[in-house]
Amino acid sequence: MARMKPRPTDLLPVTFGVGLILLASMTAGCASQRGGATGRSPGDGPTSDTGSLPQIAVQRTGGFAGLKDTVTVDPHGTWNATDRAGTHTSGSLAADQLTEIRTLATDPRLATEAGQTRPPTRCRDAFAYRLTVGGRQIEFVDCPADPDQPVASIELVKKVVGYTISNSARRS
Q1: What is the pLDDT of residue 32?
Q2: What is the DSSP string of 85-124?
Q3: Which domains does the chain have, with CATH numbers?
Q4: What share of the chain is helix, strand, coil (3-state, %, to 5)?
Q5: What is the pLDDT of residues 5-21, one digit of tens each?
Q6: CB neighbours (10 Å) of residue 44?
Q7: How many alpha carbons lie under 13 Å from residue 146 in its C-beta half-sphere?
Q8: Fewer C-beta neighbours within 10 Å, C or N terminus of the chain?
Q9: What global pTM score does this model have?
Q10: Cα–Cα distance measured from residue 161 to residue 172, given in angstroms and rounded to the nearest whole number
């Protein structure tokens, strides 16, 4: 049996369908690069793309009183804290606080600090911190006499603690 050659008009529906699929996929890619359907860019405020603020956790232990505080901040700026007695407090960061925390949490120095091993501390009764930002973990002791202190981590921890548990203690 002889095979018939397709006419150009027979391929029109297939060509049109493939073109539509390509157009739809290119448009979707552009929308996601602009910040999604809202047209907002990451960093436009608390309602912006939450992927720009990783989950943050701070654990503070030690000191003369034997503290054990844990604070977590989610991508929306909501925070939860638990102290050594198991008392829970929570709240939300203000928009300017969230912006400041977001900037500190995305500091490229954190990646370097996460890869460092620190020698034993020279201080007694100092606070030991474990900072987790996304998948990175940085541990350090708040001891100015120790060499190679993780500057970016200390800045972030001070802000997180200051805006959450230290601030809630002043309100009590």
Answers
A1: 34
A2: T--EEEEE--HHHHHHHHHHHT-THHHHHHT--PPPPS-S
A3: 50-171 (3.30.1560.10)
A4: 40, 20, 40
A5: 555 555 444 444 433 33
A6: 14
A7: 20
A8: N
A9: 0.68
A10: 16
* Tokens (6 digits) for 100: 């400041």
The pLDDT tens digits of the residues spanning 107-152 come to 999 999 999 988 889 998 889 999 999 999 999 999 999 988 999 9
Residue with tokens 């972030």: 156
Other beta carbons less than 10 A from residue 95's beta carbon? 12
- Residue 166: Cβ within 10 Å count: 13
Q: Is the torsion defined by CA of 149, 152, 158, 161 positive or negative?
A: negative
CA angle 107, 129, 67 (to 5 degrees): 145
Length of the chain: 172
What is the torsional sign of CA 66, 158, 92, 114?
negative
pLDDT beyond 90 at 159: yes
For 49-73, give the DSSP string. -GGGS--EEEEEEETTTTEEEEEEE
Token pair for 49: 């793309």
The whole-number pLDDT of residue 165 equals: 87
